[in-house]
Each structure stands twice: as C-alpha cells, then as structure tokens.
Design a protein that fits this description.
The complex is a heterodimer. By secondary structure, chain A is mostly helical. Chain A has one domain. In chain A, 75% of the residues lie in helices and 0% in strands. In chain A, helix 1 packs antiparallel against helix 2. The longest helix of chain A is centred in the middle third of the chain and has 28 residues. The termini of chain A are far apart. By secondary structure, chain B is mainly α. Chain B has one domain. In chain B, 83% of the residues lie in helices and 0% in strands. Chain B contains three helices and no strands. In chain B, helix 1 runs antiparallel to helix 2. Chain B is flat. Classes of the chains: A mainly alpha, B mainly alpha. Chains A and B meet through helix 1, helix 2 and helix 3 of A and helix 1, helix 2 and helix 3 of B.
Chain lengths: 109, 90
C-alpha cells in the first residue's frame, strides 16, 4: 500500500514538474494555458490518489477535492483563454482562428 | 515521519514551482502571469496534500479544500479584470 501510494505521488510530482516546464518553455500564451492546466489537473489527481492510498480513512474528503478540481480547473482554463482572446492579445503566428470564422463576438463570455 | 520518497516528491514539485515563478516574473503579458498563477496554485494544492500525508493530520485536507476554492475564484477574478483591459499590456 505504501509503495503504491509513493508511485502515485511520484507520477503526480512528475506531472507538476512537466506542467511548470511547459509554462516556462512554451512559445505563446495559448500553448502555455494548455500545458499548464492539463498537466497540473492530472498531477493533482494523481497526488491526491496517492495520499488516499497512504491513508484509506481520508478517502471521502479526497474524493470531494478531486471532484472539485476536475470541475473547476477546465473552467478556469477556458475563462483564461477567452479573456486572453478578448483582450486582443492574440499571437502573430496564429494559423487558424475558428472562433472568428464561426462569427463569434469578441465580447461574449 | 518524513522519508526519502517524500523528499523526492517535494523536490519535483519545488522545481515546478520555481519554473512557474520564473514565468510569473518574466512573463511579457498579464495573461501569462495569470496562467502561471493558476499552475502555481495547483502545485501548492499538491504540496499541501503531501504535507497532510507526512504529518498524518486530517486537518490539512480542509486547508486544501479552502485553497482550491480560493484559487478558482482568484483565476476567475483575474480573468474578468484581464478582459476589461483591451490592450492586454503589462
């Protein structure tokens, strides 16, 4: 049980490290949003599952935290991306703009 | 009691926190700083969860819940503020 929990925690730590590295090294804002948010969602998930394996009596509380993170983190990522798009901070080398092609307004959230 | 694997996990998270802090300092636009703040908050949630396992105290998980709610609100509020700025500078 101890070993399984440390394996999950190490996987989560690796995902946190890769998320931070992606935020540091990616070239523009939208790539940074993707790298930073997806990797850290899986990292938090994995670390919390590792903590639940180490202490099985905490499982209920940890499930509440995991459900909240799974709901809130993609919403936060989407809101940041929309705000970045609306603040005219679009990178120069953008290949395709699906939002504009579908007739999206700049001000709708 | 802290063990070797705990130190390994804390080191991985610490290097991730350093990367996000560097991006928070050098980030050219405000949205980059908001993204790095979001990543930073998620890594801090992981650190506090591992601290709960190290100290074997149930109370740290309550801190994790409150921190997750505050981090989500922080992201939303900064994004709304960012949306009001039409030039996206600084």
């Amino acid at each position: 049980m101890e070993i399984v929990s440390y394996i999950f925690m190490t996987i989560g730590g690796l995902f946190f490290l890769l998320g931070g590295l992606g935020v540091l090294r990616m070239p523009d804002t939208f790539n940074r949003i993707q790298a930073g948010t997806k990797a850290t969602t899986l990292g938090a998930f994995s670390v919390l599952i590792g903590v639940a394996f180490a202490n099985p009596s905490w499982t209920a509380k940890i499930i509440i935290i995991i459900v909240f993170i799974i709901i809130s983190n993609p919403i936060g990522s989407s809101v940041i991306a929309k705000a970045t798009y609306n603040s005219k901070n679009i990178p120069d080398n953008l290949v395709q703009d699906d939002f504009k092609e579908r007739g999206g307004k700049h001000d709708s959230v | 009691m802290i063990e070797l694997m705990d130190i390994v996990v804390f080191s991985l998270m610490g290097v991730g926190i350093l990367f996000t802090l560097v991006r928070m300092i050098i980030g050219p636009k405000l949205s980059d700083r908001v993204v790095s703040l979001d990543t930073f908050n998620m890594i801090i949630i992981g650190v506090i969860a591992v601290l709960a396992s190290v100290f074997e105290s149930n109370l740290y998980l309550d801190i994790v819940i409150i921190y997750a709610i505050l981090a989500f609100l922080e992201t939303i509020v900064f994004s709304r503020y960012l949306e009001g700025k039409k030039d996206g500078n600084s």
